[in-house]
Amino acid sequence: MEAATAATAAMVWFRKGLRVHDNPALDAARRGAGRLYPVFVLDPLYLRPDPAAASPGSARAGVARVRFLLESLGDLDARLRRLGSRLLLLRARDDDVADAVCAALKDWNIDKLCFESDTEPYALARDKKVTDFAMASGIEVFAPVSHTLFVPAEIINKNGGRPPLTYQSFIAIAGEPPEPVLEEYSELPPVGDTGEYELLLVPTVEELGYGDISQEEIPPFRGGETEALRRMKESLQDKEWVAKFEKPKGDPSAFLKPATTVLSPYLKFGCLSSRYFYHCIQDVYRSVRKYTKPPVSLTGQLLWRDFFYTVSFGTPNFDQMKGNKICKQIPWSENEELFVAWRDGRTGYPWIDAIMIQLRKWGWMHHLARHSVACFLTRGDLFIHWEKGRDVFDRLLIDSDWAINNGNWLWLSCSSFFYQYHRIYSPVTFGKKYDPNGNYIRHFIPVLKDMPREYIYEPWTAPLSIQKKAKCIIGKDYPKPVVDHETASKECRKRMGEAYASSRLDSNPSKVKPSNLSRRKMSHGDQDASNSSVAKLLKTSRSE
DNA sequence: TCCGGAGTTGAGTAT
DNA sequence: CATACTCAACTCCGG
């Protein structure tokens, strides 16, 4: 390896981790570099409007998240420019991000490539392509884990090769997270020559072709590191609130002033470092006498995030039911009509529909609101596959995160982690206890805004004269309920009971052979690990 | 192998 | 109005 000289060219490739603070990849790239190339590759699949999609946005992301990403990139560029650098925006080659990075590595004679490690399956495949190319070209590669508090592979190793499957066992094994990089820079090495490359400016959503949505309600969350740090400081200023924070006690109907920090989108894109956030919360804790603890506390939420990252990293086929060892096999029903009603906020249950409309417009809703609609779609009312709901959330949430989204759908559908399927959220009474007047519903479903308080959660029970007076005829201006909650939830409980009984039969078939290692019969072959490092880790797991 | 306790976030009712 | 209890009940884990 050549010694670092003034001529050394380093590239920091941004994907998540769209920040300057606590960024080990950027920190490593700048050290000893004569030229620094901060790169982000625009992916048309992520950004290009898809007219065939169910709601405004691209094939991969709703327009709220597209906007959030663009704002984050603009802010990153501005912050880099303040340090004498800039963001080099490239276009993917034939819709392939990895190819664009490889080409730039070669054309700019890069000596060292740094990027934040990403444990999601699609990212692992993309990054392997780039890493293989770099290695073959003699380019040094540095890919630190800095998206999560801990290194998922290390936790799995410490746990004997298998991911801890309960929060408490995760906590017991994790310990304290590493300290963030707290050093602040006054300048970065100059950007090197980019030759013939066309460097793009950060486009606006309008420039990308989303012009027709300008009349829409714009989500109240701006992307970017600057906004992330401002928002975090604002939340942490209220020390009493931080010290008393208990996640399950939050109000899911609060939308003017949400009951949580709404820092999840910033953590998702890495505008905010989870380690820095953790560190700052600890500072607040040190200044108060008493404070809540995991799992309900603020730090507890960051640990939940790491929990799901770790389990997802160590569980083959984590994002599906089939071939997923930790997922209950449940015969979900197919019903496109009911699914579409749920997706589009037309179930006839105002509480459910308001949440789905907030999702489509804002790309964010409170955690308990997500619980409500996820339960309704799956084990509570419609008995539709959690993977269908997962896909909707995955596209529309501005904070959608592969590990956490899948983990929570597994949880809510009682497919894994949580099994008390008799506990069903009521689409009527759950929201009502927080917001008896239905202000949340009135905001997101304007057609119901004049429905009297006593009918707002069940407008189909309002006498026709009242419906007329409220200018909202049920069945015409707003749909009738697609199912009756009483009968539907009863049926769901029954079917869950049957699925559980059948899975007990599968896992304990009245002792076959003690040497038989297979715990559960799989109709779809074996669980070939989607990434080999996990497969190796799993092989070391002890047998009993 | 069996038993008891724990598990971030249910609903309904009583105090 | 916040808290506590009941209801009916799941799996997982550790002893």
**Beta-strand level of the residues, as a percent range?**
under 5%
Tell me the major beta sheet.
Answer: 5 strands, parallel
Tell the overall outline.
globular
Give the helix proportion (percent range).
40-55%
Number of helices: 23
Strand ordering within the main sheet? 3-2-1-4-5
Output the structural class.
Answer: mainly alpha
Q: Are there runs of 5+ residues with pLDDT below 50, and where?
A: 511-544
What is the CATH superfamily label of the largest domain?
Answer: DNA Cyclobutane Dipyrimidine Photolyase, subunit A, domain 3
Tell me the span between the first and last alpha carbons.
Answer: 46 Å
Structural summary, described in words:
The chain has 544 residues and is mainly alpha-helical. The protein folds into 3 domains: 9-145, HUPs (Rossmann fold); 148-180 and 225-314, Serine Threonine Protein Phosphatase 5, Tetratricopeptide repeat (Alpha Horseshoe), CATH 1.25.40.80; 336-486, DNA Cyclobutane Dipyrimidine Photolyase, subunit A, domain 3 (Orthogonal Bundle), CATH 1.10.579. 43% of the residues lie in helices and 5% in strands. The protein has 23 helices and 5 strands. The protein has helices spanning 24-30, 44-47, 63-82, 97-107, 121-136, 152-158, 167-174, 206-210, 225-237, 239-244, 264-268, 274-286, 298-313, 336-343, 350-362, 367-380, 386-396, 402-412, 429-432, 439-444, 464-469, 485-507, 532-539, and strands spanning 9-14, 35-42, 88-91, 112-115, 140-142. β4 (112-115), α5 (121-136) and β5 (140-142) form a beta-alpha-beta unit. The longest helix is centred in the C-terminal third of the chain and has 23 residues, at 485-507. The structure holds a DNA duplex (15 and 15 nucleotides).
